[in-house]
Each structure stands twice: as structure tokens, then as C-alpha cells.
């Protein structure tokens, strides 16, 4: 038990500090459990090799994998983006309408498509709504993320956390008969209550607590305050960079600056300019700090010409107006853990990073060595074709919609029918249908329907096959659609939950928490579990918090004589609605940079919401399921 607690402590430290990517941390946990559980080594964790790798064969892991692919298929048709454009047309420049449209689209959709890709798709749509409606994106992007969390609790498939909680509940049902695997609409009635209450909060109180971190109508140069880092210089006759290419000047000559543009004889050249030869008299637009520029001037090799102060000065008139864009780095991107210096970003996309936001900090100088993290937002200058390539790559979320998106709109009916089948075949009560038809017709064959029971795992995998067969997805796209870090995270932490149960760790923690039952009623203990799960999820993965908290919650319910299923639902809802920090839930990371938020903004808006929904959810569980 102590060994398992030690592994949990290591996991918590690594999840919070992000010294290792979360999926690598999960695999480390799995390896430690198996090594320390092997016969002849320590045999301290009660985990065999088969149990240690059981996360890969878990129905939860495979179901999440299939749902990610299905969500990708839906996004390829452009149906969410089309709804987003209708949302923009409705919203106009009225903030209340913009909030209503943002919440009204992202919430319900997230009940049937995994909420993480929904937010990834809608970030550029909502950013454009804010821009066109003369509203700060800061007022809309946190509501977008929070609303997607509300929507994720409408159905079993709204979020991977629900699927994992259902799997854990089914595993624990062998010891606790009150538990069972969730049905498709098991908690929809409570999910609707949470969606309505949360939406009212965001519409009335939440947006008023949000500051305008990104000023209305302010361009990127001013927004990122990079004017002093953008400089125009003229190349002197004896400059050491005369006759070299731009790439050589940056990489091989003592020239610690990024060359953004070359202006020669009133002609402006932007990316790709790496192989452009620099000549005497060329005007170079640089990204460099003042000290670096002053060194060039003092050497007498460059002459200071001025500073671009707006987007327009950085964007030639003859080039499309999308040369400056923000891109968000999601989990799984090749940039995560890399620096701009070690990555191949510039070479691969002919793009220059002018500045970036990381965990609320705007980085403008010495960027090359900074490690890029999930949720960082890069301000990029690139040619329009490079921006198009960035938009089509799952390694990035471009925070503006492309002018001519390439969607498979003709496949919308196919994708809708497939998703309806995936949900419908799980949701239909076949036993009741079979008995009713047999009673009405007298045909006994209909009673065979009573034995028909299709789990979500089967229908989701069938849906993947149907997506490929109908051309909604290309065969090679199914691999790109999977967020492999999520899959490895699930596979790594599922054995940790098993170890917590088998070593008696869950029993011990449950007994300790159950002592609060001496002072609190069962409803109070349930509320404590909701708050504790919400706090834990704020610093570690929501999936990890479910695995750790569910066995303890069930043990506590057993100790105080309460309904274990009520405690399972409280933990599930709390883990899927992590509002307090930007790092507890991936959708919060997606909006962190584009909204210009600080860490405290999530606390300011999320803490009252977390408290409000803790009361609503706990009372709702007691009303619908009882304690």
C-alpha cells in the first residue's frame, strides 16, 4: 500500500510540474507498477504484467480511441464550422447574443462529439466573431471552454472522462452490485440542469468577471507589445551580411536577429526568403531587441531606419491580410517540449515567430531557447500558403478561420447518420422494444430483440468502419485523428486504479474520509468528494483524478452506508467540469493564449462557478438517484 501511495505521489509531482509529458508520466507509472509487482523483485504493488498492460485492452481506452476518430470525421465535414458561421451571423456586435451563440452551439454539440475537438474547431470561429463584433475575445473564449464542459456531461460520449468512469464503475460492480456501466443517457437529466445553470451564470455573472485582456480592435503588434522588438535597418556597404543569403545571415553570421522582410527598390519580399541574397542598400525588417540593434548600428554596418508599429506596416498591400496569425499548440504537437531553435518549425512552414504567450506570460526576447508547452500561443508571420498548411495540420490550431476552407460538406448526411446509429443502437431499450412488438404481433421472434445489447465500444468501432467506407474519412486519416497522448494516459493510469484497490489503499483512504460522516450527513460527505475531485482535477489530468478518486469514493459510500452510485456520479461530474485552472482540462489550454488570459482569470470566474455547480450537482444527484 505504501509503495502504491509512493507511486501516486511521484505521479502527482510529475503531472503538476510537467517535467515529463503526461503520457510519458503515465507509461512510467505503468512500468513502475509492473516492475515493483513482479515476482522475485518486490511484489509490492499486487500488479501482474497482464494487469499492468490491461489499460491498452480496456474497453474505455478503445472506446475513447474510436470516439476521437468519429469526432474527427464530423469535423472533416465542416458541420461544426457551418453552425459556427450561422452563430456569427446571429451574434452580430451584441455581446449577449455572442455569448448566447457561443454557449448555445458548443454546449449541445459537446454532448455528442468529444468536447476537446469541438473547442479546437470553434476557437477560430469565436475569435472571428469577437473581431467582427468589436468584442474582446477574452469575453468569449473562457465561456466557450466552460460551455463545452457542461455539454460533455449530457451523454456518455461527451468526454473521455465519462467513458473511463463508466469502465471503472463496471469493474467495481463485481464487489458493489449497486454499480453498473453507464448507459448512453444515464445522467442526461442532471447534465441538462448543469448546462442550464452554468449557462445562466456565464451569461449574467461570469462574463462580467472577465477582464478584456485582448483589447478590442487592437492589432497583433500592439496586442503583443512587440513594437520595440521590430526594427527597420538599411544594409551598409561594408556589412558582413552583404552577399550572404538570409538563412546564412541568421544562422552563420554574428547576426542575432530574425529577418522578417527584405525591401529592395520598393519591392517587398516575405517568406520564403531564406535563400534571398542580401545586397547593399536593402531595407531589412527585423525582430530583435534594442541592445542587439544598437550593436549593429555601433559597428557601422547597419543604419537604423525606423520601427513598424502596426500590422499594416508588416503586411505588404499586395499580400492577403492573413500574414499575421496566432496558432495554439495542442497536446500531441511536434512542438511540445521543443524550442524554436531545436524544432524545424521555421524550415517546415517558412514562418517566423514574432512572440508567444506561455502560461499567461508574453515572451518577446530570447524565445529561441524557451521550451514550448501545451497551450502556448505563437504569433506567426508567414505567407498565405504557409498559413493554409498550418491550418490543415493537427499539430496546430490556427485562431482564425481560413477564407476558403476545404470541407467535405457533401458527406454531412453520411456522418450524421453514422453518429445517430452509434448513439441510437446503444440508447434503444431493445428488451422493451422486443417485448412490446411480441405482445402486439404475437410473433415470438421479436423476443429475440430482448437479448440484443450493443455496448458503446461495439457501435463506436462500427461507426469508424462506416466513416471510412462512406468516404467521410480517408483510411490514413484515422491515425492522425487519434490523440495518442490521451490513449497512453488512459493505458498508463488504469493499472494505478487497480493497484489502489488491490493493495487496500482505497479501503484505507475511504475509511479516513468516512470519518467525516461522524460530523456530516451523507449529503455533506458527497459534497466534500465533489469539491476534492474538482481541486485535484485542477492540477492533474481529469482522467487521472477519476481513476484515483472513484475507488476511494465507493469505499467511503460503503463505510457510511450511502449509495455508491451517487458517489461515482459526483466524482465523474466534478472531474469533467474543471474550471479553476487552465491546466486541469485541455479545452482551457486551447483558449488560454488566444484570450490573453492570466492564471487568476480562471480562478476569478471558475471558483464561483465550481461552488455553484457543486451545490446544484450534489442536490441533483440526491434528487434523481438518492443517497
TrEMBL record:
Per the record, membrane topology reads:
Multi-pass membrane protein
What molecular function terms (GO) are annotated for this protein? Answer: monoatomic cation transmembrane transporter activity
Q: Which residues form the RCK C-terminal domain?
A: 218-302, 312-396
Classification via InterPro entries: Cit_transptr-like_dom, DASS-Related_Transporters, RCK_C, RCK_C_sf
Task: Identify one Gene Ontology CC term for this UniProt entry.
Answer: plasma membrane
Which BP terms in the Gene Ontology apply to this protein? potassium ion transport
Q: Any idea what this protein is called?
A: TrkA-C domain protein
**Which species does the entry assign this protein to?**
Natrinema altunense (strain JCM 12890 / CGMCC 1.3731 / AJ2)
